[in-house]
Amino acid sequence: MSRAVEELNRRMLRARDAMDRAYAEPLDVPALAGIAHVSEAHFIRTFRATFGETPHRYLQRRRVERAMYLLRATNRDVTEICLDVGFTSLGTFSRSFRDIVGEAPSAYRERGPILAVPNCFAMAWTRPSSFGEANTRGVV
Predict the structure, then answer these.
(1) What does the H/E/C string look like for 11-42?
(2) pTM of the entire structure?
(3) 3-class secondary structure for 45-89?
(4) 10-33 residue pLDDT tens
(5) What tens digit of pLDDT does each residue of 45-66 get?
C-alpha cells in the first residue's frame, strides 16, 4: 500500500471516528470532508470505497445501533429516543430502523430487555449488517 493511500485511509478513519463520537449531532458532508481534508465528492466516493457504504448510510446505521440499545435497555418513549440519537423525524427514524433492522422500533422493543452477556459479544450480535441489504441489490 502506498504512503498516499495510507494517509487517505487515516483521513477517512478520522471522519468516521468523528461520526461515531457525534452521531446524535447534525453532521453534513462538507464538515466531514473538511475533517478528511478532501472535497465533498471525493469524500463520498472514498468513504464508500473504504467502508462499503456512503457516509449518510453509515451515520444512519450508527444512530439505529444506539436506538436499538436504548429501546431495549430503557423505558423511554420511541419519539424521545428517535430525537436523542439524531433523527429529526419519527417517520424517517422508523423507516430507517425497519430498513436496517428488519422490523419496527416498537416490535424490536417487544423482544424484552437485553440479557447480561459480555459486552463484546452483545455488540457483535446486535450490530446490524449491511451485507443483507447490499446482497439484495446483487452486490457482494
Answers:
(1) HHHHHHHHHHHCCCCCCCHHHHHHHHCCCHHH
(2) 0.79
(3) HHHHHHHCCCHHHHHHHHHHHHHHHHHHHCCCCHHHHHHHCCCCC
(4) 999 999 999 999 999 998 999 999
(5) 999 999 999 999 999 999 999 9
